[in-house]
Write a structure and sequence with these properties.
This protein has one domain. It has eight helices and two strands. It has a two-stranded antiparallel ribbon. It is globular and about 55 Å long.
């Protein structure tokens, strides 16, 4: 029953062992990472990481560039590797490329970094993004020639992707304006949806990836978005706890991720 309903919204799973394995790995690994965030075991970057001295580190700006650049180059290259595919596939590749291009630009031009990043974490995150983006594109390539899902969601996906990427960029911009040049102390974010949730940038990232899933309509894209959502839920929960521990005046009505709910 569930399968018969699901198949109306997504393409049949491709006969690819690699994509099948990555579908399970992406969901399980990211969901577990989100759970570990709630238990205080954080990815080794940003303010949530205690940065022990013995760990080999690089500046956060360099680390985040390393994390995003390979995925951006891979998705950009895909635009030229498959020039004659259908509109859905072209749209997906364009959105994935735009997503990582925005991230690279934010690292170079918007975000303000004052800390360090574990080298191993930078490489691990970079590999994860690279594999996710290439698998997302490859899984879509395998749908070429197959009948379209009964319910076409790609135009809904376009709107969700644009809303997500614009909302995420806007709230990253607000975060970048919290501290003046040379300042290192953290402050409680204000403006936009920060008055309702402490991580609106995560909320909009989820919306953007929901848009990508609607454009793609593959099992892998749904698995990736689900895993990412669980990870960002855990990350936002941990972030809220961190702010509450650092600021006595942290507003009690501000939620972690979803206004009024969570």
């Amino acid at each position: 029953m569930v399968l018969s309903v699901l198949i109306k919204f997504i393409y049949p799973p491709p006969p690819s062992t690699v994509v099948t394995a990555m579908t399970a790995i992406s969901f399980l690994s990211m969901s577990n990472a989100g759970y570990m965030e709630t238990k205080g075991k954080h990815v080794k970057y940003s303010k949530l990481w205690s940065q022990p001295e013995e760990q080999p580190k690089i500046p956060s700006k360099k680390g985040m560039f390393i994390a995003y650049a390979p995925a951006f180059l891979a998705s950009l290259t895909s635009l030229f590797l498959f020039p004659d595919e259908n509109f859905r596939f072209t749209l997906l590749r364009f959105c994935v490329t735009t997503h990582f291009f925005k991230r690279v630009l934010e690292v170079l031009l918007i975000h303000k970094f004052s800390g360090w990043m574990d080298i191993e974490a930078a490489i691990t995150i970079s590999l994860s993004y690279f594999l996710s983006s290439t698998t997302l594109i490859y899984a879509q390539h395998l749908t070429q020639g197959l009948p379209e899902p009964e319910f076409d969601l790609k135009y809904v996906g376009i709107l969700m992707f644009l809303l997500g990427i614009c909302g995420n960029l806007y709230h990253h911009y607000l975060l970048s304006k919290l501290r003046s040049e040379g300042e290192k102390q953290y402050k409680i974010p204000r403006g936009g949806l920060f008055d309702k949730v402490i991580c609106p940038h995560y909320l909009f990232e989820i919306v953007g990836f929901l848009g990508i899933s609607c454009i793609s309509q593959t099992l892998y894209s749904c698995s990736l978005t689900s895993g990412l959502s669980f990870y960002l839920m855990g990350r936002s929960y941990a972030t809220k706890k961190w702010y509450e521990s650092k600021f006595e005046d942290f507003p009690k009505d501000v939620k972690a991720l979803v206004p009024y709910i969570f």
